[in-house]
Amino acid sequence: MKNLRWIVGSVLVALLSACGEGAPPAETAVPVLVVKPQPASGAGGQAFPGEVRARQESALSFQVGGNLLRRHVDAGQRVSKGQVLAELDVSDYALRAQAAQAQLAAAQADLERTRDDYRRYQTLAAEQLVSQSALQGQAAAFKAAQGQVDAARSNLDVARNQAGYAQLRAPADGVIASRQAEAGQVVAAGQTIYTLAADGGREVAIALPENAIGDFSVGQAVEVELWSAPGRRLPGSIREIAPAADAQTRTYAARVSLAAEALEAVELGQSARVYASATGRQALQLPLGAVQRGEGDQASVWVVDAKTTELEARPVQVLAYAADSATVQSGVEASDWVVAAGGHLLREGQKVTPVDRQNRPVLAPAAPIATKD
Predict the structure, then answer these.
(1) Rounded to an integer, what distance in angstroms lies between the CA atom of residue 56 and that of residue 203?
(2) Which one of 232, 250, 276 terminates a domain?
(3) 314 lies in which domain range?
(4) Cα(323)–Cα(317) distance, rounded to whole angstroms?
(5) I need a labelling partner for 296 at 20 to 30 A (CA). Which of 66, 259, 316, 337 fits?
(6) Of 224, 255, 276, which residue is a domain's last?
(7) Do the domain assignments include residue 250?
(8) Are residues 157 and 174 in the same domain?
(9) Same domain, 143 and 206
(10) Per-residue pLDDT of the chain (373 residues; tens, 9 = 90+)
């Protein structure tokens, strides 16, 4: 009887205890400080100084030499195709053209005389009053006179062309990038007078170091930062790399093409920095407190899922550590939200409320969920 009472009492106590236990509390999202990775320069992303240049640059010169009589444009001016940029003194070329015209007239007169002689000899030869050899001699003289006329006409065309070459015209629309001659100067044929930067593509000219030239390739993605707009990165890619190093600087000249959407942001002659990674991928910089020790002593960071606001551990490849930052090469993207501090208190899949340094939420707040019994 005592045993029965003890069992009943135990059951009642258990039932009362069960009734006293309420439902488990809902899990609350933990606020965490998050940042976005920033492009890094230094160990992971090298910076090269450069200058904005036109993709097509033409050295303009006269085809003939002479005294530079006048110039019509200066450096920095826009020009259109066919516009006269400079003129040489054409007095000598005009005299040469007149001389060539006179030689042509004399040759044509001689041609008419030999033609008449040849016709007369043909008539005399038909009447057997002159020999066939005399007739052949007149025929040869007529052909020679015809050749002299053709040569004199060609010389006249050359003289006229030279007079036309005394005007330097723009071969395309663009901007005069530089001027290398002044009015009154005697210039030679082929001597550069202007440098024309044609409209169209814009590039950044840089020099790559000889000891790391194998780490860069044509088509590699880079970022361009203008000195006049610090902090703003423009997308681009390496278009060409010189096949040989410069004999004096021992660097390889390279050209970086800017993306179409970045062309309006640059002007010719602007200074710029080109950020390129030796592996072809731009390194990113994170706060030092964001990097944790993961499985197998692999460095990792906590990344917030933008849709679920849950934490995900991402292994990263750290290139270098600094006093307050770490440069990573892979594992995260520039668009990720990375937990900047307190990672040792977090766990995989945990719901969080990501906030910035001003304690402002950066994503929609996570909805509390009830834990399972």
Answers:
(1) 9
(2) 276
(3) 26-40+283-370
(4) 18
(5) 337
(6) 276
(7) yes
(8) no
(9) no
(10) 443 343 334 434 444 444 445 555 556 888 999 999 887 654 445 778 999 888 888 889 988 888 888 888 888 888 889 899 988 887 777 788 888 888 889 888 888 888 888 888 888 888 888 888 888 888 888 888 889 888 888 888 887 877 778 888 888 888 888 888 888 888 888 889 998 888 877 889 999 888 778 878 888 888 888 888 887 888 888 999 999 988 888 899 999 988 777 777 777 888 888 887 655 566 788 999 899 887 777 889 999 998 888 999 999 888 777 788 888 878 888 889 999 988 888 888 899 989 988 888 887 654 555 555 4
Question: Where residue 345 sits, what CATH number does that domain have?
Answer: 2.40.420.20
Q: Which two tokens stand for residue 8?
A: 């009943």
- 3, two tokens: 């045993």
Vertex 258: Cα angle to 252 and 264 (nearest 5): 140
Angle, CA of 77, 83 and 86, to the nearest 5° = 75
Name every residue whose Cβ is closer than 8 Å to that of residue 257 and which is 6 or more positions away in sequence. Answer: 55, 201, 203, 236, 237, 238, 239
Residues 98, 122, single domain; the answer is yes
Quick check: 183 and 26 in contact, CB under 8 A?
no
